[in-house]
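Researcher: Here's the sequence for the chain we discussed earlier.
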Amino acid sequence: MDSRHHSTESFERYLGSHVPVDLPIHGTPTTSVFIRPSKPELGVRIEIDPSAYIPDTGLNNIVTRPAVHRGRPHLEVVVVETSLFRAAYPVLCSTADRVQLDGMEPAAALRETLSDLTSLLREAESISMEREIGLMGELLTLRGLIASLGGPAAVEAWRGPNGEEHDFGLPDADVEVKTTISERRAHWIESFTQLQPSAGRPLWLLSHQLTGTGTEFGWTLAELIDEVASTLTGRTHDEYRVKVSKTGWREAHALRIRSRWERRQESAAFEVTSRFPRLAPEALQRAGFAVDRFIQVRYRIDLDGIASPDVIPAAIIAALGS
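Model: Thanks. This is the structure I predict for it:
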C-alpha cells in the first residue's frame, strides 16, 4: 500500500484490536475507512452532495447506505461479512482513490471497482453469442425510447436486467424484445409467460434482425453500450450502467467480443393478441392438456410474412429505434 493508506499489516493490527477505528484518507472529498467490530462492519465513508445518487451494489456482503457524519452527508460502502474484511480492505481503498485522485463520482467509482473485482473472479472471459445478440436488441430498443421518452423514463422502463416478466414496461404497454441473426424473422420463446400479456395491459413483441458487417459499419456490443451511455447523465447514467452489469456484461469482455452488427432489415412490431402465433396456457388447458406438467417450454416462431398492425402506438414506433 502507498503512503495514502495504512499498510496491510497496520490494518491487521487495527482489526485485531476489536475496538472501533476511523482511518482518514487524506484528500478531497473527506474520506475514511472505518471498522466497527461490534456490528461487525468494515466500510469506507465518502462525503457526497446531499442530492447524490446512492447506488445499489446488488451484492449480499457489500452494501451501500446514506449516512450523516459530523453534520455532513456521506455515502458508506460497507462489508458485513467478517471473513471478507482482509480481502475487502484494498477494494475500499481503491474506491477512495478513484474518487479523490481520479475525480470520479462515488457511485461511478464503486461501480468500476466492483466491476474490476468481479472480472478478476469470473471464470468466464466472455458472454455467449446468444446473449450478445439479445442485449444488442434491447439496447437498440432502449436507444429509441430514450429519444422519445427521455433518459430517466426509458431507463426506468427497462425491466429485462431485473429478471421481470417482460423486457420493457411502458406507461401504456409491455414490450418483449426478440433479436435474431437468421435470414428469416424467427425467434425463440423461452416460456409460456414470455408472450403472456399482463391483465389489462397490451403486450407488443419487437423483432430485430441483425447481420454481421465488416470493420467499417455497424456496432460492436461495447460501442452500442457506450453510445447509449453517452446520452445519459447523473443518476440515470449510473442506473443504466448497473442494469448493463446485471445482464452479465463486463468491461473486460470488450477485448474479446469484436463482432460488428447492423440491421438486416427494418425492425418490426407485433401486438400479441389471440391470433398471434404462441403457446397460450389457457388455450392448452381448454384443449385438455395438463399445463402444470410442462416443466420447461422453449419453442421457435416464424414471423416472416406477418404484417405489422396498421396502427402502432407512438411509443412502440419509437422503441423500434430505426
